[in-house]
Amino acid sequence: MAALCRGKHRWKRTNCLHVLTRNLTGNYDYDLVVIGGGSGGLACSKEAAQLGQKVAVLDYVEPSVKGTKWGLGGTCVNVGCIPKKLMHQAALLGTAVKDAQKYGWQISGPICHDWATMAEAIQNHVRSLNWGHRVQLQDKKVKYLNIKGSLVDEHTVKGQTKAGKETILTAKNIVIATGGRPNYPTQIPGAMEHGLTSDDIFWLKKSPGKTLVVGASYVALECAGFLTGVGLDTTVMVRSIALRGFDQQMAGLVTDYMDAYGTKFAWKCVPKSVDKLSSGALQVTWTDTHTGNEHKDTYDSVLWAVGRAPETKALGLDKLGVQLKRETGKIILGSDESTSVPNIYAFGDIGEGRPELTPTAIKAGKLLARRLAGHSTELMNYDNVPTTVFTPLEYGCVGLSEEEAEKRHGKDGIEVYHAFYKPLEFTVAERDASQCYLKVVCERAGEQKILGLHFTGPNAGEVTQGFAMGFQCGATYSHLLQTVGIHPTCAEELTKVSITKRSGLDATVTGC
Ligand code: FAD
Ligand code: NAP
User: Whose CA is nearest to atom 49 of ligand 1?
Assistant: First the structure.
């Protein structure tokens, strides 16, 4: 590793000499330098090291606008999947405690939730994961550097510590896995000054209180779901539709369930301003785009869940000519995760057109490491990626939405099998199961290949994961019917689905 001289001109000279030397000799400090120690970057660097490569991974967390900071592991571990799923679990337990009384548990006194206890336990778990990642890197002989990386050329990365100390690293290959960060609607007065994002919500020590969640996709609905579930007055402000890109019948079931669960929805509304009152409360003014009327209400917190932007600012990509997609700012990639500049690769949330999901980032990172180490030529398959939205009623799916299948195959070219079912655990608890539903979208002709599978209900992620394998193997409707169910489960309903939408028959499952 060569130290970078501070003076501009001296740095240039040192760097030129350095570049010259390694171009002649082909020697680099590392085989691989990975910028970004999140889901993808960690998987890629550990895999490469296991294959005998000399690897360094740079991870640096720029604090959120509110000043929230966290450790190694990226979005998923610190401000994404992990704390989110644990807060979702906290909310589900609230429902379970209510159900428990119907099952004979004697619970005296009112049931209430303490945010600080939950937050502390989850934050401690996340810290243990941060530590675990550091240990794993050490065990696997990956050099971890807590520095912010930028590109100098296609073999050179400059790193800078928080204190401004600079380091130069050279590598045969460079991988960018810097993910993304939440957007703020900067055009809305007070949005940035008074609002939170998902980078903050999981690290709050005190309850956010009455909360307005702006946005209506994964992050908005999941956060609104657990906030409602732990007893907070929660409103979701939706400017257009919920869960854009997902099957809209299923999206409707998810939001109907949330509505019945206690989450409020302000449909077709757009925020205009956020003002802090002398009481400390946040006054939000918004426009109802249906009527054009303006409304105001006060909240303790406003959570912006209005999408994410790729983290490319600090990387110096333009200087090297790494091509970005203008509309999204993400890096344009080949199927082998190559950028427009030789020896520079990228994947995960930073990659244009890639799913913003942890398992795809991990798998893509491992496969890239194997290819760069010359151990494999296998490319990442981004088709048939299953996903689950962890809303109070979970929604899991794989493949096409009904709308997309209809667009591609025509209304007469698809057959949709569907069922409304009642999870057994809902019966004794006397819970409403109106939104527990599944549908299997198939080609109508031939063997009725399954095009899309959708499920709302308890443990939708667990259910969908298993069926995703069948889907990956090209399952047909008859394969589904040949599959023996496991009784009594919710997943078995998928193996029994027989009513077509076309028939117009009642799709409610009755009996076992
Ligand atoms: P990241 O995990 O974002 O890692 C990038 C890392 O690079 C970060 O640590 C960042 O600080 C660092 N970095 C950035 N710039 C630099 C630089 N110049 N130098 C050094 N380091 C840098 N996905 C799921 O599959 N399931 C879920 O349930 C789920 N829930 C989510 C919930 C929320 C609230 C959010 C926001 C996301 C969720 N996701 C979920 C998405 C998932 O977290 C991301 O898809 C995944 O983390 C992307 O991994 P990555 O490696 O591309 O980037
Ligand atoms: P997203 O999917 O891009 O959705 C952004 C939402 O904000 C949309 O509802 C959008 O509405 C709305 N919006 C955008 N700008 C707005 C504005 N100015 N005012 C009001 N509303 C606005 O973003 P996300 O929910 O942050 O999720 C990002 C990614 O993280 C997802 O694609 C997903 O892959 C990943 N993620 C995964 C999980 C999981 O696997 N369970 C969970 C969370 C996140 P319009 O539809 O009108 O544009």
Answer: 39
Query: In ligand 1, which atom is closest to the CA atom of 362?
Result: 51
Query: Residue 66's pLDDT is what?
Result: 97
Establish how many alpha carbons lie within 13 A of residue 132's alpha carbon, considering only the half-sphere containing its beta carbon: 9
418-447 pLDDT, tens digit per residue, is: 999 999 999 999 999 999 999 999 999 999
Which helix H or strand E contains 48, and what residues bound it?
helix 39-50
The ligand minimizing its distance to the Cα of 390 is 2
CB 386 less than 6 A from any atom of ligand 1:
no
Is the fold of 32-60+146-182+309-372 the same as that of 76-128+184-306? yes
Residue 218 annotated in ligand binding: yes
The answer to whether 221 is annotated as binding is yes
Q: Is 334 annotated as a binding residue?
A: no
Q: Where are the domains of the chain?
A: 32-60+146-182+309-372, 76-128+184-306, 394-496
pLDDT-derived band at 467, boundaries 50, 70, 90? very high
Q: Which ligand is nearest to the CA of 314?
A: 1
Average pLDDT (310-328) is 94
Reported CATH class of domain 76-128+184-306:
alpha beta
Please check the confidence at residue 385 and state whether its pLDDT lies above 80: yes
Whose structure tokens read 């997943």? 491
The verdict on whether residue 349 carries a ligand-binding annotation is yes
pLDDT in tens, 109-123: 888 999 999 999 999
- Strands (DSSP E) found in 138-184: 142-145, 148-153, 156-160, 166-176, 180-182
Around ligand 2, the residues with Cβ closer than 6 Å are 185, 214-220, 222, 239-240, 244, 270, 305-308, 355-357, 387-390
Of 6 and 402, which is predicted with more confidence?
402
Is 133 among the catalytic positions? Answer: no
Percentage of residues of the chain with pLDDT beyond 90 = 93
What would the pLDDT profile of 190-214 be if each residue is shown by its tens digit? 999 999 999 999 999 999 999 999 9
Query: Which of these, 2, 51, 439, lies nearest to 252 by C-alpha position?
Result: 439
pLDDT of residue 41: 98
The atom number, within ligand 2, closest to the CA of 219 reads 25
Model confidence at 174: pLDDT above 70: yes
Please tell me the residue having the least CA distance from ligand 1 atom 46: 358
Homologous superfamily (CATH) of 394-496 is FAD/NAD-linked reductase, C-terminal dimerisation domain (3.30.390.30)
Of all helices (H) and strands (E), which one includes residue 135?
helix 115-139
Whole-prediction pTM? 0.95
Q: 338 with 154: CB under 8 angstroms?
A: no
| Whether the predicted pLDDT of 22 surpasses 70 | no
Whether the CB-CB separation of 311 and 178 falls below 8 Å is answered with: yes
User: Rg for the chain (alpha carbons), in Å?
Assistant: 25
HSE-CB of 319 using CA atoms within 13 angstroms? 12
Atom of ligand 1 nearest to the CA of 350: 52
Q: Name the CATH superfamily, with its identifier, for domain 32-60+146-182+309-372.
A: FAD/NAD(P)-binding domain (3.50.50.60)
